[in-house]
From TrEMBL:
Compositionally skewed regions (Basic and acidic residues) per UniProt: 263-278
GO cellular component: cell cortex
Record-linked InterPro entries: RasGAP_CS, RasGAP_dom, Rho_GTPase_activation_prot
Coiled coil: none
Protein name according to UniProt: RasGTPase-activating protein
GO molecular function terms listed in the Swiss-Prot or TrEMBL record: GTPase activator activity
Gene3D superfamilies for the chain: GTPase Activation - p120gap, domain 1 (1.10.506.10)
Residues spanning the membrane: none
Region spans: Disordered: 248-278
Pfam families xref list: RasGAP
Species the sequence originates in: Reticulomyxa filosa
Location of the Ras-GAP domain: 1-128
């Protein structure tokens, strides 16, 4: 131990791999890594029922759309697509950096980090359903082949969820027994991302060019989406979920809105009285007809406050949306 290497030097990777001493070291370390890999894989497979419905539903949609687009593809290719989504975006980051989600309370050593990266790489290869490209990783090919079917069973269980509308129907029934206000936590950039996706793909989800589509009305009011804010300004806010066609504001008055209740009631009545104007504006939007800028900016302010009813939303955010809309109208 700790003696200078007495064997040949300046060897290639292939030549070093054939050395008897190197083979003994590699075999021992491969067994240790496979033991750890078994533990990680068991935890992932056995926790399938703990995966949130939304993630499982997305995985189901990926599998169904792949099968529809490529009818002749086998289940391993479909599983690789689903695995590329859930593993790369949810499991891999936590394995490589467990401190990011407070799984550990100390900084990892360089050796521990390298081991976790190697484990994540092997699991990702298994999840994607591909072969190793690096020669030194091919010693784990037997382990990957051994557990490939186990992971396919996991993917089958993962996408075995009810259709979205059936799930929402159950949520609606449960909601009848609750009196609490429904809220959702989002960041500013998440709102902007949703705005941008709806804006960019409006011709896809509104192929019939329905002028009365409620989402189209909102997009016509908001205009072009703003760019993302920097990290320090990307605050997390609570949004109260409201029905778009609910005109009864009496039940919506609570302690969170008392500070600006009179102002908000006035604005809500102002919006209701201009419903016909908004319908006309949506039609003008589809036909690419310019609308009056001052009137549109005023409606942007009213609509943003209707969608983002929350005391924590700064005036800066509202001003950014108005500035983006002015740029779009120029």
């Amino acid at each position: 131990m700790n003696r200078p290497w007495e064997g040949p030097k300046n060897l290639t990777a292939e030549e070093a791999a054939e050395d008897k001493y190197v083979k003994r070291l590699v075999a021992s370390r491969v067994r240790q890594l496979e033991y750890v890999l078994d533990h990680f894989l068991t935890c992932i497979v056995e926790s399938v029922d703990l995966v949130p419905f939304g993630i499982r539903w997305i995985c189901r949609q990926l599998a169904e759309m792949t099968q529809k687009r490529f009818p002749d593809v086998d289940r391993y290719k479909i599983g690789g697509l689903v695995g590329g989504f859930i593993y790369l975006r949810f499991f891999n980051p936590v394995i490589v950096a467990p401190e990011s989600v407070n799984f550990v309370d100390h900084k990892l050593s360089n050796a521990a980090r390298r081991n976790l990266i190697l484990i994540a790489k092997i699991l990702q290869t298994l999840s994607n359903g591909v072969d190793f490209r690096d020669q030194y990783m091919k010693v784990f090919s037997p382990w990957v082949e051994k557990h490939r079917e186990d992971l396919q069973i996991y993917f089958a269980r993962l996408i075995d969820v009810d259709p979205l509308f059936d799930h929402l129907d159950i949520d609606d029934l449960v909601g009848l027994t609750k009196d609490s206000v429904q809220t959702v936590q989002v960041t500013f950039n998440q709102i902007f991302l949703l705005h941008r996706l709806l804006w960019q793909h409006r011709k896809v989800w509104n192929k019939s060019k329905d002028c009365n589509d409620p989402v189209l009305k909102i997009l016509a009011t908001l205009g072009a989406p703003p760019g993302p804010v920097k990290f320090s300004d990307n605050h997390l806010i609570n949004l109260q979920l409201r029905c778009l066609n609910n005109n009864n504001d009496d039940d919506d008055d609570d302690d969170n809105n008392n500070s600006n209740g009179d102002d908000y009631d006035h604005k809500s009545n102002h919006l209701d009285s201009k419903e016909d104007n908004k319908n006309n504006m949506a039609r003008d939007y589809i036909a690419n007809v310019r609308v009056n800028e001052d009137a549109l900016v005023n409606q942007v302010r009213e609509k943003i406050k209707t969608i983002l009813v929350n005391d924590s939303v700064p005036e800066m955010l509202l001003e950014q949306c108005r500035t983006s809309l002015r740029t779009y109208l120029q």
